[in-house]
Design goal:
mainly alpha; 2 strands; 502 residues
Length: 502
């Protein structure tokens, strides 16, 4: 294994593998910044180019592209409030307010460094965990996926801000909207109003860019200022954001492990790990007052989670031939094109290639972060440009993202409709993240609830892993109340001590 580990590293820097990786990084950088295209679409377009390549060259090109899209997607999320990738949406909640406060550099530095830490953790998880996690991955069936969905719902409390009732109602609205489309069991139309374009449901990208970006653009237009309402101060620097990653290393590491876990389990959206990581960052903080207003911890959590899942998602793909996401499904196609059969055989006969993949993820992210850090000050200055000059470009990005999701004009109408909903929610003080979480979780919960009940009836509730996840979900739900009760009790105790001393 040590020989294969070193051999894999040397293969990455061989010619033309390294140049192809750089080309993939360049494509991934553009794809990550432009909303709506997404890494699955870009990789599908590039797949025909790998026929004449050797396996390590093909995966250098594809993984270079795949590894950086989530990282660069954070850039537009922070600077403009427009998610470049679905898995970058949670970064908006605190990243964009930081940009408004003149701390764009700090937010970008934190996002990039936490992404790098997460990517390294996920990549070396891929290297170390294949023989260890085999029983875990194989033990996850529909009841366990359902329990993970319910765990996500439990984090609604953390995403609801100060008004828990509005948060729960917004999450419920998201779950209802997730039911639009064809019923997964009986193929019956639901809430489609006769529109064929809604058969596949509400496009998540169109909903995201409408819900988050359009209210920010309208706010920018009304104020007539730049995105950054104040000049970049001392704490607006990139290096402060990098230092924040290590100051809050506990959050960075824990959220990396959350992303790794969700990446490991096939069929669970990478977007879910971001929202769960953000919820964990909120709930684990003693002072929650800054979250949603520009807390760097709200950038570190999602930033670490989105990249740690990249390496982990490849474990079930390589070990069992079971892709965990749309992107890894395309990677599985790349295996077939190269004449490779995923499974136990590849882990023994092509171990050097597997370690090359590990190094490709690590090296791609290191190069991306270094290049971004070099140009970050220039990128951060975009937030100081007058809003009237930025708004046309931002609107183009928003509607391009909405259209590219399903390539239909109906997607433009959905983007606009969610923009109006987002505006109303902002005006009335309703939190938007719970609605997104409901949209993400709806299909996962509905599909696995039906299968779990059909196969196990109510016995699925007694499966060991389900019980463990449900206990964690209950703990997550009541943790804020316990923290408030503890804080109140400590305050009363301190008051009593002061009164006795007097």
């Amino acid at each position: 294994m040590l020989e294969a580990f070193v051999s894999g590293l040397l293969d990455v820097f061989a010619y033309p593998t390294f140049l192809l990786m750089l080309l993939g990084i360049a494509v991934g950088f553009v794809v990550g910044i432009l909303p709506g295209i997404g890494s699955p679409g870009a990789m599908a377009i590039m797949l025909p180019f790998i026929f004449a390549m050797k396996p390590v060259e093909a995966f250098a090109f594809l993984l270079g592209m795949y590894a950086v899209t989530a990282t660069t997607g954070d850039i537009t999320s922070i600077l403009f409030g427009v998610p470049g990738e679905v898995v970058s949406a949670a970064t908006i909640i605190d990243g964009h307010p930081m940009a408004k406060h003149g701390e764009a550099g700090r937010a970008l530095g934190a996002a990039l460094m936490s992404s790098l830490v997460g990517a390294i953790i996920g990549a070396f998880t891929l290297a170390a965990a294949i023989p260890v996690v085999t029983p875990l991955v194989l033990s996850f069936k529909s009841p366990e996926f359902l329990a993970l969905g319910l765990l996500g719902i439990a984090f609604l409390a953390a995403l609801s801000g100060e008004n828990k009732l509005k948060g729960v109602l917004a999450g419920g609205m998201g779950l209802v909207l997730a039911m639009v489309g064809l019923d997964p069991q009986e193929n019956i139309e639901r809430y489609t109003f006769g529109l064929v374009g809604l058969w596949e449901g509400v496009g998540l990208v169109a909903a995201l860019v409408g819900l988050f970006a359009i209210p920010e653009i309208v706010d920018l237009w009304v104020k007539g200022t730049s995105i950054a309402e104040t000049q970049v101060g001392k704490l607006g620097g990139v290096w402060q954001g990098i230092k924040d990653t290590f100051i809050h290393l506990g959050i960075t590491f824990r959220c990396s492990m959350i992303g790794t876990f969700f990446g490991l389990v096939p069929g669970v959206s990478g977007a879910l790990s971001q929202w769960v990581s953000y919820g964990h960052a909120v709930q684990s903080a003693s002072d929650k007052s800054r979250f949603g207003k520009g807390d760097v911890r709200g950038v570190l959590g999602p930033g670490a989670a989105n990249n740690s899942g990249v390496g982990a998602a490849m474990i079930p793909t390589i070990a069992f031939g079971v892709p965990g996401s749309a992107t890894t499904a395309i990677l599985l196609g790349a295996f077939m094109i190269q004449g490779l059969q995923p499974g136990p055989k590849i882990l023994t006969e092509k171990l050097s290639l597997i370690f090359s993949m590990v190094w490709l993820i690590v090296v791609s992210n290191i190069i991306t972060v270094i290049m971004c850090l070099i140009f970050l000050n220039q990128l951060a200055k975009i937030t100081l440009i007058r809003g009237s000059l930025l708004i046309p470009a931002l609107l183009t990005l928003v509607f391009l993202g909405g259209y590219a999701d399903t390539n239909s004009y109906l997607a433009l109408a959905i983007t606009l409709a969610f923009g109006v909903v987002g505006l109303v929610m902002v005006q009335q003080g309703w939190p938007r993240p719970p609605m997104v979480l409901g949209l993400v979780l709806g299909p996962l919960i509905e599909r696995n609830l039906f299968i779990s009940y059909e196969v196990y009836r109510f016995g699925f509730l007694l499966r060991p892993i389900v019980l463990v996840i449900l206990v964690i979900a209950i703990a997550v739900l009541f943790l804020p109340n316990i923290q408030e009760w503890t804080a109140r009790r400590n305050a009363l105790r301190e008051e009593a001590v002061v009164a006795n001393e007097e």
